[in-house]
Amino acid sequence: MSDSNQDGDRTHEGPLSGQVAIVTGAAKGLGEAITTVLAREGADIVFSGRDSRALEEHCAAVDRQYPGRRNLVISCDVTDEDQVQGLVDRTVATLDRIDILVNTAGVIGPIETSAQDVSLQDFRFVLDVNVIGTFLPCRAVIPHMIERQHGRIINISGTSGLRGYRNRVSYSSSKWAVRGLTRTLALELGPHNITVNDICPNVTNGPRMDKIVGEKAERTGQTFDEVYADFAQQTALGRFVDKEDIGETVGFLVSEGARNITGHDIVVDAGWDV
Fold this sequence. Notes:
- By secondary structure, this protein is α/β, with parallel strands linked by helices.
- The chain folds into two domains: 2-202 and 242-266, Rossmann fold (3-Layer(aba) Sandwich), CATH 3.40.50; 203-240, no CATH class.
- The protein has eight helices and eight strands; from the N terminus they run E-E-H-E-H-E-H-E-H-E-H-E-H-H-H-E.
- Strands 1-4-3-2-5-6-7-8 form an eight-stranded mixed beta sheet, with helices on both faces.
- Helix 1 (29-40) packs parallel to helix 2, helix 1 packs across helix 8 (243-253) and helix 6 crosses helix 7 (224-233).
- It is globular, with a radius of gyration of 18 Å.
């Protein structure tokens, strides 16, 4: 765990200045982009995840770019109830409040594997991380947001949660569940001025997508470039999205301009689901 600028000698201001955001899976991929946008907007950030070294390095990089905010690095396994509660308790004890929660931590599970070949262990692991790992942080922050009568919760679903996804039964099931969780919480928390939305990215450039493309290419006998092009051609814009696109979407959803958006799937897919 690491604290930075806890005295609040703020040199970077923005529309989120004074607000505190917890981001799970904060060190890499979507979490990296999301925390960068939130810092740019002035938020104090709790960087959470399992890779402490990566969290520390990314936190330091963000602090150099947007100095003078308060930062906190806390190692946490989002499937562990006690660790999640500790994450939230430490945040409130150190930073006094929680305004924003972004649940980014997740796993992809078996790739190009038919349902009958997916082990119970693998299926359960994906649901534990992607669903339980979204539910537990939500449950832990809700009392603090209700107390303040304000909050923004953003979950990460995906376009695989909008349709069936052949040979990705565990991942698709988990992302559908995140959408159901999001809508239920939106109904429960709306009376307390708390919005709850999920973002549905399509294929997103980065190491995780390279792994999916590579494994599909190996199993189907296609080249990496052929699989990549096939994914891209399924979209109206003919391209993948970038992690920065998701970061900017989070930046909008936590802004005052999105105060009346709740219970929705915000699809960022370059025109795949049209």
